[in-house]
Amino acid sequence: MTRKTVRIAMNGVTGRMGHRQHLVRSILALREQGGLELADGTRLWPEPVLVGRREPALRELAGRYGLERWSTDLDAVLADPATDIYFDAQVTSAREEALRKAVAAGKHVYAEKPSATSFEAALGLARLARDAGVKHGVVQDKLFLPGLRKLSRLIDSGFFGQILSVRGEFGYWVFEGDWQEAQRPSWNYRTADGGGIVVDMFPHWEYVLHELFGRVRSVQALAVTHIPQRWDERGKPYDATADDAAYGIFELDGGAVAQINSSWTVRVHRDELVEFQVDGTHGSAVAGLRTCRLQHRSGTPKPVWNPDLPVTHSFRDQWQEVPDNEEFDNGFKTQWELFLRHVYEDGPYRWDLLAGARGVQLAELGLRSSAEGRRVDVPEIAL
Ligand SMILES: NC(=O)c1ccc[n+]([C@@H]2O[C@H](COP(=O)([O-])OP(=O)(O)OC[C@H]3O[C@@H](n4cnc5c(N)ncnc54)[C@H](O)[C@@H]3O)[C@@H](O)[C@H]2O)c1
User: Fold this and answer.
1) I need a surface site. Which of 169, 242, 310, 328 has the fewest CB within 10 A?
2) Would you say the CB of residue 97 lies under 6 angstroms from ligand 1?
3) Which Gene3D superfamilies does the record associate with it (predicted)?
4) How many CB atoms lie within 10 A of CB 371?
5) Domains of the chain: which residue ranges?
6) 362 and 204 Cβ atoms separated by less than 8 Å
7) Ligand 1 centroid, distance to 242 Cα (angstroms)
8) Could you tell me the fold of the domain covering 142-328+361-377?
């Protein structure tokens, strides 16, 4: 068995996503399982180089996980021929410049979403990577969640008949930061720093809708800032300039209509932090992060509207749980494995910078729809 070391420059690993999901739950988890075995028997051994702005934080992180390489000098890491892949989980506003440098240095690139802060920049990155001939990918983790994989399985089985509509409910209460610390970084609530729930969540909704139900043809959104003042990591008040809730309607190829609420100003009265209800002519399902429940037309009760009578049964109990039937690994790790196979085995991979640009496009058009108070068409894009 041959072992091939793959050196991955990981930028933004001191952040929430970079640290937990990408470094620990993906790359270190891959090492724990002995690397990634390719079809020809070669084992890929990922070797992270932690990249960031603060040397002490990187040193501490490297020490904690027994890693040997870290650097605050991105240019030097990219200039090093031993670096194979550049990964970016920095704040969104810092991503484009770093990805451009990495592509210019001939590295394969993999990045968190959104891939850039504007559609023009995101499409530009996709073209740049294509012209440079490097492999590229953008995180689309929700597709690999157990709940959505079960939903996808139902779609493939023809369970729904014709899909009519999708109702998505995403969100939870993000504390303002005064009397209880906020559980998300403050840059998310400042437009100038790349924040806003539309920019954050519409890229996810684009690929979820596109892959499962059909390309988004038009968007109508209302983006609002419900809470105009918040308190940052140092306890200082700041103006929350970015939208913290968005109410969107999306028309899809194939005729289904999706309606998704995204909010950091909602208290959860749901089973999971995101849920999608899909209604079709033959059946319906509600999928969350992990679970999926269904109701077939043959088991659909016949509710009769009568507010004078109390409801004597539980509507929720009339749904059936979709079984796991397989082991679901962490979604971020699954996508990392597919990306590494794409780079080293030329395996199929469609979650690339062009797909990432579609997400940014939907966010941009969603914000335009909100600002102009109208429905906006979403043109198909090509490189
Ligand atoms: N896929 C997902 O589900 C998901 C979820 C949350 C966030 N994200 C994306 O991941 C990225 C990081 O988000 P996060 O929540 O981990 O953020 P975070 O604030 O926790 O981490 C940001 C990282 O970027 C670094 N950084 C570089 N330049 C910076 C600057 N000028 N100011 C502040 N930090 C800077 C920080 O040191 C840190 O390592 C964002 O692009 C976000 O959209 C994706």
Assistant:
1) 310
2) no
3) Dihydrodipicolinate Reductase, domain 2, NAD(P)-binding Rossmann-like Domain
4) 11
5) 3-140+331-351, 142-328+361-377
6) no
7) 16
8) Dihydrodipicolinate Reductase; domain 2 (3.30.360)
Question: How many angstroms does the Cα of residue 163 sit away from the middle of ligand 1?
Answer: 36
Ligand 1: distance of its center to the CA of 94 in Å?
9
Instruction: Name the residue among 109, 105, 120 with its Cα closest to residue 353.
Output: 109
The alpha carbon of 80 and the centre of ligand 1 are apart by a number of angstroms equal to: 25
User: Looking at ligand 1, which atom is closest to the CA of residue 92?
Assistant: 41
Rama region for 194: left / alpha / beta (φ>0; ψ in -120 to 50; rest): left
Query: Is the CB–ligand 1 distance for residue 356 below 6 Å?
Result: no
Distance 364 CA to ligand 1 centre (A): 19
Closest to 202 (Cα-Cα) out of 92, 329, 288: 92
**Is the CB of 92 within 6 Å of ligand 1?**
yes
Q: What is the pLDDT of residue 313?
A: 87
Whose C-alpha lies nearest to ligand 1, atom 4?
17
The pLDDT assigned to 1 comes to 75
| CATH match for 3-140+331-351 among 1.20.1250.20, 2.40.110.20, 2.60.40.4070, 3.40.50.720 | 3.40.50.720
pTM score, whole prediction: 0.96
Residue of 17, 141, 360 to test ligand 1 pocket, by largest number of atoms within 8 Å of CB: 17
Q: What is the C-alpha separation between 270 and 315, in angstroms, rounded?
A: 14
Task: Give me the sign of the Cα torsion angle 274, 112, 220, 185.
Answer: positive
The closest of 210, 358, 197, 219 to 274, measured between CA atoms, is 197
| CB 139 near ligand 1, within 6 Å | yes
pLDDT, one tens digit per residue, over 146-165 is 999 999 999 999 999 999 99
Segments of the chain assigned E as strands: 3-11, 36-37, 43-51, 70-71, 85-88, 108-111, 136-138, 163-171, 216-224, 229-231, 237-239, 245-252, 257-263, 274-280, 283-287, 292-296, 320-321, 376-377
Interstrand relation of 43-51 and 70-71 (parallel, antiparallel or unpaired) = parallel
Ligand 1, atom nearest to 90 Cα: 24
Ranges in the chain, pLDDT < 50:
none
Ligand 1 centroid distance, CA of 158 (Å): 39
